[in-house]
Amino acid sequence: MLRHFPCRDVAYPHKKRDYFIAAFTFFCVAVCLISDASASMEKQNALGVSGWVFLIGLLLGENKEVRVQVIIAVIFATIGEHFASPFMGGYTYRFGNVPAYVPPGHGMVYLTAVALARSGLFLRYAREITGLVIGVCGLWSLWGISGLAEQGDAVGAMLFCVFLVYLFKGRSPMVYLAAFFITTWLELIGTAVGTWHWAPIDPVLGWPQGNPPSGVAAWYCLVDAVAIGGAPVLINGFKNGQVWLKALKAQKAAYQGTGND
Known about the structure:
Blueprint: H1 16-36, H2 41-59, H3 64-87, E1 91-93, H4 102-117, H5 120-124, H6 126-145, H7 154-169, H8 173-192, E2 196-198, H9 217-260
Antiparallel strand pairs: 1-2
């Protein structure tokens, strides 16, 4: 079950850039969500502009594959936000919209998951971190369905099971582990300060859900999986398109040369 986990007893290097990306994003998430708790629409838009500037700046030091992954994550997550929030009503932002900082925020969150996943800390202590995450999220999920919690959370327990499938069957378990930390951070802050709130009853399943659901990281794992799986396809498609265009230009040039003769 751990075949996609990093090998034990390997001196994985620590790169300052990975930890900087993570620390910077954790800080920005806290500042942005707390600021938005009482912000006007104009301030929301300003936070969105800042988010794009920060995201582009962080991507300058990444390779093509990671950049494409981030682009896919932003597009997929933004579509999901509009479907799940304004359309379905699974959770609702203060103004009933999708704030301008959310799309670049998803990009920064995804990049943080990638950075932590490749960091020496996560690679060296993968199994210990896995045990911590399963223990914390598992207890959180049990609390939600125990009847002791003020708001039931059957959806969270279900999502926790989905998260476990991603973790042990997916090809990028370290990214999913890292996603748990950054997404739990943003969900706890965002719901605590009232930037958004989750519906007590899930509009699709009709099950009670927490604010936030305990296994909410599973939704972000879906974004990560789509980004990781879609990037090679998009890159190869772009390369094939370039080859086809070059061949078409060469064929056209040869045809024109033949006509001139």
